[in-house]
Each structure stands twice: as C-alpha cells, then as structure tokens.
Here is the input.
Amino acid sequence: MSGHRDVVFQASGVTKTYLMGEVRIQALRGVDLTLYAGELVVMLGASGSGKSTLLNILGGLDHADGGVVRYRDQDLAHAGDKALTAYRRHHVGFVFQFYNLIPSLTARENVAIVTEIARDPMTPDSALSLVGLEDRMDHFPAQLSGGEQQRVAIARAIAKRPDVLLCDEPTGALDSRTGIRVLQVIQQINQELGTTTAVITHNAVIGEMADRVVRLADGRVHSVVENPARKSPGQLHW
Here is the structure.
C-alpha cells in the first residue's frame, strides 16, 4: 500500500531527553516513522510513551536531540528557529486538548487571527462552515459548548490550508458523544482537503478510524498496523 506513496514525514533514530531537575527523562529512544500524504494516522500510547514529544518535533515546536526528521525536502532536525517558525506558519495546523481560544474574540475573529497572516487562507466564514459552525460565527467562546469551541480551534487550524494537521488529544476534554462529533470533523478535513492528519490519543477505540495505527511505548514505536477498513467516527463507542 505505501511503497509508492508520497512521503510527508520521515523520522529515523529520533531521540529526545529532558532534564527534570536532576533527573534525565528519555522521552524518545530511537523512533523510526514514516507518514504519507493524505493519510490519517492515530498514535496511541499511555502517558509518558513519547507521543506528544514526537508530535511536537514533527510540528516544529521542539527539536530532536538526535536522529533524522524530515518534512518532505526540509531538514527539521537542524532547522533554526526562524525556519521552524516559517514551517509552522505555512505548513502545519495544530489542535490541542484545550482550545486556546481568545475569550474576548468571537469565533470568526479567533479564526481571522490565523487567516490574516497566512499566504493563501480560506475566509474565516468558509473555515467555520466546514466544521458546521455557520450559525455560531459571532458567538464568543463562553457562549459555545466545549465541542463547539474545539471545532472553532479546528477551523482556526485548517483556515490557512495546512498540508499537515497535528491533533494532540483533541477529544481529551470532551464526553464521548461530543468527541465523536469532533472526530467527524477531523475525518472530513482529511478526506475533503486531503490534509495529512495525525491524531494522538490514549483512547485505543479512536484507532479504528485511522488508515494506520502507531503504538508508542517507553519512547519507542512498538507497532505500526494498517487498518483494512476505516470505521467512521459514528461507528465508534467508548
């Protein structure tokens, strides 16, 4: 399946160590991973498995200590801060567990923060319509449910038309019904826009909607499994 596919990320032998006071924490211990254009990958692992560290390195939010990290032809492992800032701005959309919306701005204005600095953005209205919030654009975060706030955050992430969407526990603060609605939006973006998408979670059920499931444990890739058939989020139960 993947022999001829367009490689978006190539990580090889990636290591990362943090100092917590006097203690050295080995977050990544030689990770090898390839991500392909247009696929939806779910990365599973317990707390401390290294999945967030890996996602942050792929997204240019953090540097690896060792190994190779490439985004297409770009060497992320040796990129300076200016190059990583440009990479994040033009190529990557982020969605986190907590929505990070600005409370004093409406949904439309929260999305416009990104579209005003992007090269070829959607309009805020288009991005919010894509996530099903065409009737909530002028509402402030406090007037929106948790799931609606997360969908605003997704609209903000995709409004710059990123090549890659990186989601860190996007349903972690939501109940299952609301979480499934958010996953439906993520799947829709992946399928309609062809955005390469990685979702990290500790919830194994979410892996059933992926093209491939990557399991991390103790800072290493434990297994990579292709799903013969992706489930839709509406078929998931947890």
About this structure: The longest strand covers residues 7-20. The mean pLDDT is 92. Strands lie at 7-20, 23-36, 40-44, 66-71, 74-75, 92-95, 164-168, 196-201, 212-217, 220-226. The CA atoms of residues 111 and 124 lie 6 Å apart.
